[in-house]
Amino acid sequence: MQAIRSILVVVDPSRSEDLALKRAKLIASVTQSHLHILVCDKKADHSDFLCSLSENLKDEGFSVTAQQEWLETLHQTIVRVQQSEGCGLVVKQHVADNPLKKALLTPEDWKILRYCPAPVLMVKTDTPWTDGVVLAAVDVGNADAAHHILHSSIVSHGYDIAALAKSELHVISAHPSPMLSAADPTFQLSETIEARYREHCKAFQSEYDISNERLHIVEGPADVHIPQTAKQLKASVVVMGTVARTGLSGVLIGNTAEVVLDSLETDVLVLKPDDIIGHLEDLVAQH
Fold it and tell me: Could you tell me the maximum CA-CA distance found in the chain, to the nearest angstrom?
């Protein structure tokens, strides 16, 4: 996160207090990043708002540019501006869709998580980050190269946020429940599954300096346990990642991040491995 030189901040002029801008200012004040303010609206003109906001931010000592833009959809607008401005992080306040709309249409915030090549911070609360807990969600059971690189990025960003906010980093990893039909006997008993995960975790803990007290291994679906553990720890930020599913023509985010986005009561930072970032950047360039 220290390497981020420019942050894209998606703001909504109708909000009296913009949580995304608040978080972006916190990050920029530590990383000395440039702030690029974006209003996504095809109807009203927000020039006066952007001019006033930019002047205020400059008076506070920030480096700022601003624009209003609209392409076909919200997520396309954000991704195109992120690419054209070379922003290393996108910060947006999360707006939950109502359940009926979500059942019929893929929420725009989900699409931003899927298609944005840069890390995305979805801001959900105004709870201070300071002196709290940062929770990093990893899949220790997957030890392939793609997951290893992603785990490194998740933990690294987690430590960066923890240092920025004077917080403590915790890690959660979920393992599957036992299945009597599993071909490998290891996966037929809870004890042997957990033992295998604990073994995986020893190397992981050593590599990333995670003590037993800060490691939470849980049995069952990650999308259930991540919000529960975040609530128990009173976490202020959850850092997650996604790896592309093989056999699909498009790039799909592992839907854990999508599913937990509404159920988490914390801010959420979602990261992607380099191979997906490259693929997504190619897709953006083709349009």
Answer: 66
Residue pair 268/258 in contact by the 8 Å Cβ criterion: no
- What letter would DSSP give residue 212? G
Q: What is the pLDDT of residues 83-105, one digit of tens each?
A: 999 999 999 999 876 666 665 66
Structure tokens at 57: 């931010």
Q: Say if residue 195's pLDDT is above 70.
A: yes
Q: What phi and psi values does residue 238 have, to the nearest 5 degrees?
A: -115, 130
CB 154 within 8 A of CB 254: no
pLDDT digits (tens, 9 = 90+) for 201-245: 888 899 999 999 999 988 888 889 999 999 999 999 999 987 644
Which DSSP string do the residues of 170-210 spell out, in sequence order? EEEEEEPPP-TT-SSGGGGSHHHHHHHHHHHHHHHHHHHT-
Q: CB of 219 within 8 A of CB of 118?
A: no
pLDDT tens sequence across 5-30: 999 999 999 987 789 999 999 999 99
The tokens describing 58, both together, are 């400059």
Cα 34 from Cα 43, distance rounded (Å):
27
Amino acid 195 reads A
The CA distance from 200 to 216, in Å, is: 13
What pTM does this model have? Answer: 0.87
Q: How far apart are CA 46 and CA 78, in angstroms?
A: 17
Query: What are the tokens at 158?
Result: 């987690």
- The beta strand positions in 70-126, using DSSP E, are 89-93, 120-123
Question: Are the C-beta atoms of 27 and 164 separated by less than 8 Å?
Answer: yes
What is the phi/psi pair of residue 32, to 5°?
60, 30
Question: Looking at the predicted structure, is the pLDDT value of residue 252 above 60?
Answer: no
